[in-house]
Design the sequence.
């Protein structure tokens, strides 16, 4: 991977500072003298570079360097573990920065009995994610503990947003008016790589503006999420430092007054919207008696238990160069895992109400159908489509959300955010003659109660809420009751209230697809060999046949992205050429959302088709396996595995 010159020099400077801090030159001199004294053969006059490196490794010098030097993948900002602000290279002296240091955690009582991990032992870890004004950061993972060793520094740029002011340094008054918080998300990853959202916290950093030195220390009490949002999860010790220090120091009273005014303004807007929503709801119920049973959702609770209008969960989100088309965006969203919010005790069989802020959803890499639908709708809006989130039910009355787009020719398309499948909607005419041909629905949706996006909220007031009977003419007020766009915008448009979480940008893929594919394929080969050895079978690989399988896996992923199949003819022709006359070929492709080889292999063996290939017996049996990992933004990946065998037919 190549780096731009400025990044390369920055990286060199960080490593140089770290080596000086460790007194690495002195250690190398000591090791060199000891090696010359003990290891140099009488017949040799000099030591080679390899000899010196082996000596350094043998004495643990290389391990010490690598153990303390960690670089997190940061896409939109700079992370500088264990470096003071004065040592951070390449600061732009014309910009104002907030240096946020995490100085460790305490009181994570859930991990009070957690044993100290042994060296090299795989254990559960904490990772802290940050977002501030379009900049995203991630700490290095640390072992879960009652007092986790989270030691990290983050350099956040505080830029002005006025036209032509982007290059000017923000003064104290300008910084006071910046109400964007630092969004902190703490994620726990267990030994099987399953992620759990521990806490989501919005930090108001402006207390540092009243510090005479431009530096202050704080203790942030994190709370749990969902049903545990009132329970303390732990405490993070932090320090905040402005660089360069502002010339003007604000009094604490000014900062308190500014916060109070912002809260009052937000509370008044939310109160007025609630009054309007109640009146709008009463009018909706008076239209038809059946409207009382329709699934119309105006508010939803986020991970912190805060009720927010559902329209605030959708924003116009542009993915830059990370996603090339709406269908690729749908594929990306479908690769994020599905997990319903846990219910403590599991009583009542009901579903815990929890919609997630976008950052929490992306960092956890999984969420409920509402999280998938709002993200997909936001991305489709970014691609210029007229997109809406639909709230309704699936067969058996299960609540569900999906996405709908309206074409300029009034074509209605449903997008299933969990699978990336698309369905064309054609309404059934209930007044048509009994023998008249009617469209047969292919989508898995039964009813729709309301639709919404970032600007509009509409409730279905047609005689029936059955999807197949619904018309989606939003200008027809007898079919859809529309909420005032001005009322929705007063609490849902960006910057309208200080209670809205800021919209984070997407991060690029965090893995190298070729290396990940090779590694997983080697692990799969090892598991196949061991499994066949347990059955008393030898394993002979056909590398050419394995390579031929690549085109099939590429075609499968392309079909998932675009909905069109291609390349099948070439694959079939290549297989015919690779399999001699009188031989039989069998293949089994399968798709995963993770890269855990043992889990994937166990899943494959549950299929009788795959088990038949892996355990194949016969004459001249040759096995093949091919793995392709396709990388997407936010650590999402599509993993395709194909097992195949060829053998001589003796019957």
Sequence:
């Amino acid at each position: 991977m190549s780096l731009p010159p400025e990044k390369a020099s920055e990286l060199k400077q960080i490593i140089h500072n770290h080596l000086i801090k460790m007194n690495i030159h002195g250690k190398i001199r000591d090791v060199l003298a000891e090696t010359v004294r003990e290891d140099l053969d009488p017949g040799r006059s000099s030591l080679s570079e390899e000899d010196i490196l082996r000596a350094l490794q043998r004495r643990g010098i290389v391990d010490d360097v690598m153990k303390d030097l960690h670089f997190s993948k940061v896409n939109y900002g700079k992370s500088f573990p264990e470096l003071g602000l004065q040592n951070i290279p390449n600061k732009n002296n014309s910009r104002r920065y907030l240096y946020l240091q995490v100085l460790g955690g305490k009181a994570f009582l859930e991990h009070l009995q957690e044993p100290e991990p042994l060296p090299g032992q795989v254990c559960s870890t904490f990772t802290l994610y940050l977002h501030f004004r379009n900049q995203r950061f991630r700490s290095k993972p640390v072992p879960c503990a009652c007092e986790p060793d989270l030691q990290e520094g983050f350099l956040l740029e505080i830029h002005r947003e006025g036209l032509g002011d982007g290059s000017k340094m923000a003064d104290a008054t300008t910084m006071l008016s910046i109400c964007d918080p630092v969004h902190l998300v703490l994620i726990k990853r267990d030994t099987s790589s399953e992620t759990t959202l521990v806490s989501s916290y919005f930090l108001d950093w402006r207390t540092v503006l009243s510090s005479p030195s431009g530096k202050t220390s704080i203790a942030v009490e994190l709370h749990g999420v969902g049903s545990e949002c009132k329970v303390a999860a732990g405490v993070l010790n932090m320090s905040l430092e402005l660089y360069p220090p502002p010339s003007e120091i604000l009094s604490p009273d000014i900062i308190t007054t500014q916060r109070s005014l912002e809260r009052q303004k937000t509370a008044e807007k939310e109160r007025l919207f609630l009054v309007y929503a109640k009146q709008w709801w009463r009018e909706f119920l008076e239209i038809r008696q059946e409207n009382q049973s329709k699934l119309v959702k105006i508010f939803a609770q986020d991970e912190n238990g805060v009720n927010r209008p559902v329209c605030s969960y959708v924003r116009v989100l542009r993915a830059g160069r990370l996603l090339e088309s709406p269908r690729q965006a749908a594929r990306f969203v479908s690769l994020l895992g599905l997990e319903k919010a846990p219910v403590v005790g599991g009583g009542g069989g009901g579903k815990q109400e929890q919609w997630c802020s976008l950052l929490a959803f992306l960092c956890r890499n999984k969420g409920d159908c509402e999280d998938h639908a709002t993200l997909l709708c936001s991305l489709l809006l970014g691609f210029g489509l007229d997109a809406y989130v639909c709230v309704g039910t699936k067969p058996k009355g299960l609540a569900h959300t999906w996405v709908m787009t309206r074409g300029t020719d009034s074509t209605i398309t449903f997008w299933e955010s969990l699978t990336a499948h698309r369905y064309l909607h054609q309404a059934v005419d209930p007044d048509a003659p009994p023998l008249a041909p009617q469209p047969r629905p292919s989508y898995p949706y039964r009813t729709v109660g309301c639709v919404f996006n970032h600007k509009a909220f509409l409730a279905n007031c047609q005689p029936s809420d059955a999807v197949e009977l619904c018309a989606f003419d939003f200008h027809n007020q007898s079919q859809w009751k529309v909420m005032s766009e001005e009322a929705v915008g007063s609490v849902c448009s960006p910057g309208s209230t200080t209670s809205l979480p800021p919209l984070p940008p997407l991060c690029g893929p965090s893995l190298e697809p070729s290396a990940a594919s090779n590694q997983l394929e080697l692990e799969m080969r090892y598991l196949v060999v061991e499994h066949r050895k347990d059955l008393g079978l030898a394993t002979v690989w056909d590398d050419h046949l394995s390579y031929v399988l690549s085109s099939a896996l590429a075609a499968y992923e392309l079909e998932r992205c675009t909905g069109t199949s291609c390349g099948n003819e070439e694959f079939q022709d290549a297989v015919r050429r690779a399999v001699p006359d009188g031989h039989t070929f069998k293949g089994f492709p399968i798709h995963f959302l993770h890269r855990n080889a043992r889990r994937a292999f166990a899943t494959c063996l549950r299929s009788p088709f795959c088990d038949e290939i892996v355990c194949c017996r016969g004459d001249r049996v040759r096995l093949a396996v091919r793995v392709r990992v396709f990388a997407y933004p936010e650590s999402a990946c599509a993993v395709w595995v194909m097992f195949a065998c060829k053998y001589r037919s003796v019957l």
User: Anything to note?
Assistant: The longest strand covers residues 619-631. The chain has four domains: 5-68, 96-160+168-250, 261-341+351-492, 513-648.
